[in-house]
Amino acid sequence: MLSGKTILLIIAGGVAAFKSLDLIRRLKDQGATVRCVLTKGGEAFVTPLSVSALSEEKVYTDIFSLTDEAEMGHIRLSREADLLLVAPATADIMAKMAAGLAMDLATTTLLATDKPVMVAPAMNVRMWEHAATQANVATLASRGVLFAGPVEGNMACGEYGFGRMSEVSDIVAAVIHQFKDEPEKADRPLTGVRAMVTSGPTHEAIDPVRYIANRSSGKQGHAIAAALAALGAETILISGPTALPDPTGMTIVHVESALEMLAACEAGLPADIVVCAAAVSDWRVASQADQKMKKDGGGPPDLVLTENPDILKTLSAPSPTRPGLMIGFAAETQNVVENARAKIIRKQCDWILANDVSPDSGVFGGDLNTIHFIDADRAEAWPKMSKQDVAARLAAQIVHHVIGDERGGQDGD
Ligand code: CTP
């Protein structure tokens, strides 16, 4: 029932931590990959060795361990999970979550995640009933944190009441329930794939009220992000200023300038696929004025421009974080295919969608696009079609590429 799912299990310091060992086993029985973070308190009840033996994965214990951070930073740890499960969730860790504290690997990971979080509270009945805990429970629930338990029963401390951690089988059932409405993988072939799309123009400030921009509407980039997200890709849309509504089902980062767009892209790595559809301004003003520039009778100012970084080229350069598939656009007004081929080589990307943006093409701001799809060995002329259809056709090529790669890997095994 949990095949293909990765659960990040955070084991906090409570007597019920010993049950977490069984929880790891039961989640794995359901096909899940279980990665564990053990808090300092958790280590008082279970050992990292027993947790790693059961999970068959490395156990993450301390944010300040340089090896852990180098191998898998806390951001990546939470990104690669489908669900973060805190079991046992002590009053202490729930208070830290409610307050947004980032004090150790567990709390930092919980603060950095955009994935569903489930807690299985375990504590003494008085602690559970305390107004502070109840306020924290209400805060967490209002933020969408899911609760498995607690239940009523005898406590390790000899008291009776609410606060016992749910039975392991009930926690596993709650986890399975969380995923039950997910569409079948066949409908979402890009599930597990991380995609990043840049879209729209950039605005390069001259002073606080004026900027240099271009006519990009963002329609093509937004449509591509929507198509990838609909196929199950975990999608980040990095958008320059546009008049478009934010699409749903993805993370959206709004930026203004090329420098901000590059920083957002670098922060979004690692990614499997990047589509650079933004019309990034090639230049920015060398030194922006802090105050609005005034007409002081001395004539118009000389605007000195400096070159912006090329985002597509930067991300396509060979490096350990280079995405597996780098896709760019080439806006051309003449010799579309030859210029696009030269751009693939110059920018070291894998595919280019070249489009004719000559004034009579109506591409900028319009709803239609005429594309030449170009990779290392092909140039395909696509008929004139809507930007949605271009997005769907590109997404289909990406699916073909991803699934083809998976099959290739299996054949070679
Ligand atoms: N691009 C980018 N960062 C830049 C400039 C362009 O990421 N600073 C990306 C665009 O998103 C697009 C591709 O590079 O995917 C090509 O953009 P285009 O404007 O056609 O090419 P330029 O690099 O500007 O080359 P030229 O102006 O010489 O045609």
Question: How is this structure best described in words?
Answer:
The structure is a single chain. The chain has 413 residues and is of the alpha/beta class. The protein folds into 2 domains: 6-182, Flavin prenyltransferase-like (Rossmann fold); 194-412, CoaB-like (Rossmann fold, 3-Layer(aba) Sandwich), CATH 3.40.50. It has 15 helices and 22 strands. β7 and β8 form a beta hairpin. α1 (17-29) crosses α10 (168-179), α6 crosses α9 and α11 (219-230) packs across α15 (387-412). The longest helix is centred in the C-terminal third of the chain and has 26 residues, at 387-412. It is elongated and about 80 Å long. The model is unreliable at 407-413 (pLDDT under 50). It binds cytidine-5'-triphosphate. Cytidine-5'-triphosphate binds at residues 198, 258, 276, 278, 280, 282, 308, 310-312, 328-331, 343.
List keywords for this structure.
binds cytidine-5'-triphosphate; alpha/beta; Rossmann fold; elongated; 36% helix; 2 domains; eight-stranded mixed beta sheet; 413 residues; disordered C terminus
CATH superfamily of the largest domain: CoaB-like
In the CATH hierarchy, what is the class of the largest domain? Alpha Beta
> Structurally, how many domains make up the residues?
2
Please state the second-level CATH architecture of the largest domain.
Answer: 3-Layer(aba) Sandwich
Please give the structural blueprint.
Layout: E1 6-11, H1 17-29, E2 33-38, H2 40-43, H3 48-55, E3 59-60, H4 66-71, H5 74-79, E4 83-89, H6 91-99, H7 105-112, E5 117-121, H8 125-129, H9 131-142, E6 146-147, E7 151-154, E8 160-164, H10 168-179, E9 194-199, E10 204-205, E11 211-212, H11 219-230, E12 234-239, E13 251-254, H12 258-268, E14 273-276, E15 283-285, E16 305-307, H13 311-316, E17 325-332, H14 336-347, E18 351-356, E19 368-369, E20 371-374, E21 379-381, E22 385-386, H15 387-412
Parallel strand pairs: 1-2, 1-4, 2-3, 4-5, 5-6, 9-12, 9-14, 12-13, 14-17, 17-18
Antiparallel strand pairs: 7-8, 10-11, 15-16, 18-20, 19-22, 20-21
Helix pairs in contact: 1-3, 1-10, 6-9, 11-15
The structure holds cytidine-5'-triphosphate (CTP).
Cytidine-5'-triphosphate (CTP) binds next to helix 13 and strand 17.
